């Protein structure tokens, strides 16, 4: 039995069975997904080699969830952009960007849940049970968009500039020796425009 603050060891066998050493029971990917939702820490090890295979197993859980009807959470444009970053110059910073974005987003969602809980915690005479404070939802949506916009700025090496004339743009393009950097800046600008449209 692991210490209270240590992650549970899940062993994966050649027959694809998963064994929870903390409870001494076989588990499924659905069980692991529930452990994640409950905030229970675990690592998955190959039973034969002892290698840490937590990452591919968590990826497999996401794949399984995404293939369930009505459970799609990752939009196609996001998936395309994510795939495009593999092998790209920005690949090394994408993981930390996504991690920090999700941490900040989770904190915002927790704050929102508390606000909703306080808004409907009165008696039925005070608050109708079906009343939804739309203003709070709108404000939360705006905060979430601002959150992602701020996170996207870490990708932008230069502040946005006013549109240049064709002559100035051509002159600037001739001085731009690094084609990859220019392409990267264009991708970032496109992503920023999408976020701005969401904000509007």
TrEMBL record:
GO biological process, alphabetically ordered: regulation of DNA-templated transcription
Residue span, PHA accumulation regulator DNA-binding N-terminal domain: 9-68
Pfam families, alphabetized: PHB_acc (PF05233), PHB_acc_N (PF07879)
InterPro entries associated with the record: PHA_DNA-bd_N, PHA_reg_PhaR, PHB_accumulat
Region (Disordered): 158-183
Domain PHB accumulation regulatory as annotated: residue spans: 74-113
NCBIfam families in the record: PHA_reg_PhaR
Name of this protein: Polyhydroxyalkanoate synthesis repressor PhaR
Organism lineage string: Bacteria, Pseudomonadati, Pseudomonadota, Alphaproteobacteria, Hyphomicrobiales
């Amino acid at each position: 039995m692991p210490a209270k603050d240590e992650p549970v060891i899940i062993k994966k066998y050649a027959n694809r069975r998963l064994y929870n050493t903390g409870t001494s029971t076989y588990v499924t990917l659905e069980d692991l997904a529930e452990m994640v939702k409950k905030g229970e820490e675990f690592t998955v090890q190959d039973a034969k080699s002892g290698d840490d295979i937590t990452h591919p197993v968590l990826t497999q859980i996401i794949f399984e969830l995404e293939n369930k009807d009505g459970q799609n959470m990752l939009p196609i444009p996001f998936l395309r952009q994510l795939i495009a970053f593999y092998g790209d110059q920005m690949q090394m910073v994408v993981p930390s960007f996504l991690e920090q974005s999700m941490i900040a987003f989770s904190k915002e969602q927790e704050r929102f849940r508390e606000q909703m809980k306080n808004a409907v915690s009165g008696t039925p005479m005070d608050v109708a049970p079906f009343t939804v404070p739309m203003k709070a939802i709108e404000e939360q949506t705006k905060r979430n968009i601002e959150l992602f916009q701020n996170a996207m700025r870490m990708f932008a090496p230069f502040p946005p500039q006013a549109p240049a004339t064709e002559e100035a743009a051509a002159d600037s393009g001739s001085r731009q020796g690094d084609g990859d950097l220019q392409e990267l800046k264009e991708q970032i600008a496109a992503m920023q425009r999408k976020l701005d449209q969401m904000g509007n």
